[in-house]
């Protein structure tokens, strides 16, 4: 698997790339919501006294609870997948062109839930959250989590919302990890799976996490991970973010509308600095560790849902060259899987930046599972 340091360029960076799509978005007034699980037991046996999961919903849940779609976000992204919080907000969600009335993920017929995964820094319980035993951030004492823990927390949320069955689980990058994990952990819960710019298995080693930790430790404020009262490690996080934005096509996406390279450079730095003050480095380490040891491949035989696997032609993180091996293993396990290569110059960011190029494929794939119009 590619270096986990590169996972920093996930879907969170899909910031207002398509202004036309933003302007046409029909999802206005999206609300931020929270769900709390008391005494959430992790695979490790550790118990979080409270596990908060931040989420948003779009559309209406049917009376039978069977018209839902679950969306999962990228490594350092958030749960704002569609729409805008207010009419004057220019920033739409990371898959906004795909979600809404009449779109590929049609909110006239579907109830869409987008969750912030456990361990993330956008509202869900993570290492920067206060440990009720100490009144201070968990920091490096935050327990190890797994992809199974992440999807189990999501399942608890769905149960609380009254969701009985999912039309689909879908997501890009780390969201694709979650999608694969859902397919083998709760194989009868959904009709379809859509894993995008992702893979079904991590590296199986901690080498990449160790490299990430070493880079963080070089910051003078690191303090063994207890940087919360020392001003944080924003300079290190900013530098890392800038590298990643450039590596995964953010400059190319901005160039669609901004010809001046210096202006693009300033925008990239601005986005990186903003993110560096939002995302927790200890959270990155926990999520990176979870992805390193993630392995849905070994359980492919459990998968029952039909799968759409989408890779971008220019993605360096999950290049299309990995598709034959993945598809071969899926076929050997008896999984009904379809592969689609998204031809795009925008690398890992293609599923949003070139949403129009794969939206028809996604819509056609979901069509057999769509509920009837009310």
Tell me briefly what this model is.
The chain has 374 residues and is an alpha/beta fold. Helix content is 31%, strand content 18%.
Helix content: 25-40%
CATH superfamily: Alpha/Beta hydrolase fold, catalytic domain
CATH architecture classification name: 3-Layer(aba) Sandwich
Structural class: alpha/beta
Low-confidence parts, pLDDT < 50 over ≥5 residues? 1-25
Q: How far is the N terminus from the C terminus? A: 45 Å
Protein architecture, described:
- With 374 residues, the chain is α/β, with parallel strands linked by helices.
- It has one domain (4-204, 295-369): 3-Layer(aba) Sandwich (Rossmann fold), CATH 3.40.50.1820.
- 31% of the residues lie in helices and 18% in strands.
- The protein has 11 helices and 12 strands.
- It has helices spanning 19-24, 147-161, 174-185, 207-217, 234-247, 250-254, 261-276, 281-292, 323-332, 350-353, 355-366; strands at residues 33-41, 47-58, 68-72, 99-100, 105-106, 111-115, 130-131, 136-137, 166-172, 190-196, 306-312, 337-342.
- Helix 4 runs antiparallel to helix 8 (281-292).
- It starts with 18 loop residues before the first helix and ends in an 8-residue tail after the last helix.
How do the helices and strands line up, and which of them pair or pack?
Elements: H1 19-24, E1 33-41, E2 47-58, E3 68-72, E4 99-100, E5 105-106, E6 111-115, E7 130-131, E8 136-137, H2 147-161, E9 166-172, H3 174-185, E10 190-196, H4 207-217, H5 234-247, H6 250-254, H7 261-276, H8 281-292, E11 306-312, H9 323-332, E12 337-342, H10 350-353, H11 355-366
Parallel strand pairs: 3-6, 3-9, 4-5, 9-10, 10-11, 11-12
Antiparallel strand pairs: 1-2, 2-6, 7-8
Helix pairs in contact: 2-3, 4-8, 5-7
């Amino acid at each position: 698997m590619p270096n986990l340091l590169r996972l920093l360029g996930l879907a969170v960076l899909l910031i207002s790339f398509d202004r036309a799509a933003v302007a046409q978005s029909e999802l206005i007034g999206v609300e931020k919501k929270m769900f709390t699980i008391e005494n959430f037991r992790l695979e490790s046996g550790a118990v979080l006294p409270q596990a908060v999961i931040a989420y948003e919903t779009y559309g209406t849940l049917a009376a039978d609870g069977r018209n839902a779609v679950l969306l999962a976000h990228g490594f350092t992204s958030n749960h704002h997948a569609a729409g805008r919080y207010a009419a004057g907000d220019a920033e739409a969600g990371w898959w906004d062109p795909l979600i809404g009335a009449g779109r590929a993920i049609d909110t006239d017929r579907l109830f869409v839930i987008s969750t912030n995964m456990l361990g993330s820094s956008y509202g869900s319980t993570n290492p920067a959250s206060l440990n009720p035993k100490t009144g201070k951030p968990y920091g490096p004492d935050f327990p190890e989590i797994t992809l199974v823990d992440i999807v189990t927390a999501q399942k608890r949320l769905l149960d609380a919302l009254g969701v009985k069955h999912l039309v689909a689980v879908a997501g890009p990058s780390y969201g694709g990890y979650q999608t694969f994990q859902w397919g083998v952990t709760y194989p009868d819960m959904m009709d379809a799976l859509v894993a995008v710019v992702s893979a079904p298995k991590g590296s199986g080693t901690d080498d990449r996490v160790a490299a990430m930790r070493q880079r963080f430790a070089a910051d003078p404020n690191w303090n063994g991970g207890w940087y919360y009262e020392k001003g944080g490690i924003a300079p290190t996080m900013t530098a890392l973010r800038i590298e990643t934005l450039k590596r995964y096509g953010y400059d190319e996406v901005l160039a669609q509308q901004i010809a001046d390279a210096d202006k693009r450079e300033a925008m990239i730095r601005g986005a990186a600095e903003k993110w560096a003050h939002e995302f927790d480095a200890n959270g990155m380490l926990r999520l990176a560790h979870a992805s390193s040891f993630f392995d849905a491949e070994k359980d492919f035989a459990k998968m029952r849902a039909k799968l759409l696997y989408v890779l971008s032609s220019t993605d360096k993180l999950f290049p299309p060259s990995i598709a034959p091996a993945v598809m071969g293993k899926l076929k050997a396990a008896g999984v009904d899987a379809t592969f689609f290569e998204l031809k795009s110059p925008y690398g890992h960011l293609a599923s949003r930046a070139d949403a129009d190029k794969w939206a028809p494929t996604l819509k056609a794939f979901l069509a057999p599972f769509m509920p009837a119009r009310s």
